[in-house]
Amino acid sequence: MRPTLVWTRSTAIGAAVVALLLSSSLTAPSFAEAQMNPKSVAMAVPLTGVIHQQQAIGKKDFIISKTVVHASPQKVFEVVTDYANAVRYFSNLTSCEVLSEKNGVKHVHFNAKATGLLKLDYVLAIDQSKPNRIEWTRVKGSFKANEGYWDLAPVDGGRSTLVTYAKHVDPGFFTPKMFVHTTLKDTAENIFRDLKRNVEPPQVAVDSSLKKVVK
After folding, report:
1. Which CATH number is 9-209 given?
2. Residue 115: burial class (beta carbons within 10 Å; 0-12, 13-18, 19+)
C-alpha cells in the first residue's frame, strides 16, 4: 500500500520548490550561485528525502543531488574529508589513501566497488580551500572524466545541512546517458545514506534512510 500524503499549505509550498528545482537550469557549477535560498530548498527535501537534477554546466552533464542532513556543516565536512577513515564511513569504497597535498589540494587514491564485479581505481585532485565546499577533478585511473563538488549550506540555524553532491562522469567509451545518470543517482543516494548513518543521531539517521526517493 502506498503512503497517503496529506496536502497542507506547507506541503504545497514544498512541492512547488521541488518542481522549480527539477525544472531549473544552472549555468555555473555552484548551487549557491543560483538565486535560491538554501532554507527554501530545504523545505522541499524532507518531502522526498533526495532531490536529483540533471544540469548542463558548460558542455558537461552533471547529476546534482541534494538532501538535508541533520548535523552541522562542520561535522559533515569532517566526515567527507576524513580520508583515513573513508572506507569505514562509505560502503562503496574498498581503499582510500592520500598521496600528496599542496596548497589545499590533495591527491587521493580510491578503490571502489561498482555494478556487478566491476572495480574502480582512480586518483582525484581534491580542493578543500573554500569554506563548506569540496571540489574534485580526475588525475588518472578509471573514467575519461570524473569531476564534481560537495556544497554544504547551513539550515535550521546551523543545526542541519543542505548537502549538495554533484558529479560528472565520462566513462571513456560509449555508454547510454540514461545508464550513466541512473548510476550517478544511485551512487549519490548510497553516499547520502552512509553519510547520515555516520553524522546523524541514531534515530534520526534511521528515519532519514526510510524516506522515499524521487528520481
Report:
1. 3.30.530.20
2. exposed
